[in-house]
Write a structure and sequence with these properties.
The structure is a homodimer. The first copy, chain A, is α+β, with helices and mostly antiparallel strands and about 375 residues long. Chain A is built from eight helices and 22 strands. In chain A, the strands form five sheets. In chain A, strands 6, 7, 8, 13, 14, 16, 17 and 20 form an eight-stranded mixed beta sheet that branches. The first copy, chain A, has a five-stranded antiparallel beta sheet with strand order 4-3-2-1-5. Chain A starts with 6 loop residues before the first strand and ends with a strand.
């Protein structure tokens, strides 16, 4: 088995069968309920029960040693020839019931690009930005699995004017599904132990709604209609680490890692069949570990199934922007019927894709 | 049975027994699992299963007819003499696993009071504010039941300076626990059907952390360490309606109710044994139905167990402010060991209290 043959976790409904949590290997899938019921995945009762659940939350709740033990058993089963099923015979379901969803804003280039569009003449980067990974809570219950069509939202696009958004955008992001934590902060050097795995995220945004509503409490209805995540969660263990970019000055100590790491996910944004941009997640100013340390420094507990995402991953050059707003300089938005596909690869490992077609607004 | 004898819903653990969802009547409680198992609450299987759950979510999921049917059966059981248990013999647990938590900012006086403190010389009320109930998503997984002590959070209280907050505040709010909705907006005239009940909320806030972090994505760590809600949820049906205050101009049509209503909850803020303020929720500029209609106008689905809160309820007169920051004009904050108690009464109906003591920050 090579690095490219990594396992990823998800939930599928095979044609004519019950939904099951599943392991994916390339384009083949192993739904885990049947082998678990046959005793082929060991006799740990907690694990057996977790495998019977309709989402990965109970498995994630068991913690990292259980994730690793299960991965070992699944690999063994595959090695001894247990049959896999073609992915094409399965419907992919939302793998995790998202507990809380936090979206960061960790790309300096995205902040600068947007600042120029939205606040021309004013400093794009606020005073706090280089001191902490700025973020906010998004709506957890409208996180949907890749492939789900997304209906164009309505909202106040201008004072008092309710209409379907005329500025529907995508945001290309990398997301992290978390395991539980005891109450108390997650140290920046401990972050890896609390990350179950990595996904791609499209944080759909209605820019006209967002722009009118966001002062002073941040984005709300401009984002809360839908957020798409990829169906398969790649364990952090499977991914090669990269060196983060240098920060402009050392942040507070709780954000200083002894051995800083990040992921270099090569991302691709396709709209209407055309690849428009190729940003890389190693360009992010803040690292995943810094985001997680910051998010919990106030004592906020992590829950199995929390999702945090990087925010739009953008570069400064044309062809590297992470949103259509940046690509089109505020002149191009998503049309009804258009399909967005985000893809990602980290070293040898495909992170899969997150796909979504825009549906016409409700009447 | 008088209006004062309304039922409220919660979850309790009676001394020496299992946790159970429960109905409360005054200072007595009926844990519902034992009578449900004895067949005394009807034979509807969905309802039986919902009563076996550790939170009210499954009951709420069943929808308003089921809530009303269960209330009728519980009242009947009490009328025919089924014994109740003193509330003092029960531990109160978090009644609902909060799906998403949205906090609004619906008090004009709170906005004006805070604007004067935080942005002196600038207009306190932003352009969007009179057009829509401005709000944001808070952290759902750190909503705790009243009585839970709250540890003073740490965070960046100034650029690069991690410290325990020196500006810990309370916010006195009214909260609404929601039932499910089909995908699609909840019409302002339909809001009542989607509200399971009413609670009191203390949206604890670390003002120094919040102030440094909140531009441009809104409050995050200054709020996410803890939000307290009262243990008992009073059905909306049990509460008398009041006439909302006049709005400065008619908002967009989706926010215009045919028969506008609000609740006039007489609130009381006690800190360290002293009542400091008495705001009323009928002073809010935006009504609960407007908040719910706005929150879903973009198509965002409601989930059983969603909580939305009004934001701080403030008046303009001394003795009517809804936060300690306003009461003390930015000079007084919560001390370690101090206990905050919020109380509320709506007409004849006691909404109970939400209590929380401040614990010293973690070392």
């Amino acid at each position: 088995m090579t690095a490219a043959d990594h396992l990823a976790w998800g939930v599928v409904r095979p044609t004519g069968a019950h939904a099951s949590i599943a392991a994916r290997l390339g384009d083949r899938v192993l739904p885990l309920r049947p082998p678990a019921e046959a005793g082929l995945l060991g006799h740990d009762l907690d694990l057996r029960h977790a495998i019977e659940e309709p989402t990965l939350n109970a498995l994630i709740e068991l913690g990292r040693p259980a994730w690793r033990a299960l991965a070992e058993r699944v690999r063994h089963l595959i090695d001894v020839g247990h049959p896999l099923m073609p992915l094409a015979f399965c419907e992919e379901l939302l793998p995790v019931r998202i507990a809380d969803y936090v979206d960061f804003y960790a790309s300096l280039e995205h902040v600068e690009n947007f600042g120029r569009l939205w606040r021309p003449g004013q400093p794009a980067v606020h005073e706090n930005w280089r001191h902490m990974p700025v973020g906010y809570h998004g709506r957890a219950s409208t996180v949907v699995v890749g492939g789900t069509p997304v209906r164009r939202p309505r909202g106040q696009v201008a004072p008092g004017e309710l209409a379907a958004t005329r500025a529907l955008d995508l945001e290309c992001e990398v997301g992290f599904v978390c395991g539980p934590s005891a109450r108390g902060p997650v140290a920046v050097d401990d972050a890896e132990r609390h990350i179950f795995g990595v996904v791609l995220v499209n944080d759909w945004s209605a820019r006209d709604i967002q722009r009118f509503e966001y002062v002073p409490l941040g984005p709300f209805l401009g984002k809360s209609f839908a957020t798409s995540m990829s169906a398969w969660i790649t364990p952090l263990d499977a991914l090669p680490r990269a060196t983060p970019r240098a920060q402009d000055f050392a942040p507070a100590e709780y954000l200083r890692a002894r051995e800083p790491w990040t992921l270099d996910v090569a991302l691709e944004i396709e709209v209407g069949g055309e690849v428009l941009s190729r940003p890389r997640s190693s360009w992010l100013y803040w690292t995943p570990a810094q985001m997680l340390a910051h998010m919990t420094v106030n004592g906020a507990t992590l829950t199995a199934g929390d999702l945090f995402a990087s925010g739009t991953v953008s570069g400064s050059e044309p062809g590297t922007e992470g949103s259509l707003g940046e690509i089109g300089r505020g002149e191009r938005w998503l049309a009804d019927g258009e399909e967005v596909v985000l893809r990602g690869r980290c070293g040898d490992v495909e992170l899969g894709e997150v796909r979504g077609q825009v549906l016409t607004a409700a009447p």
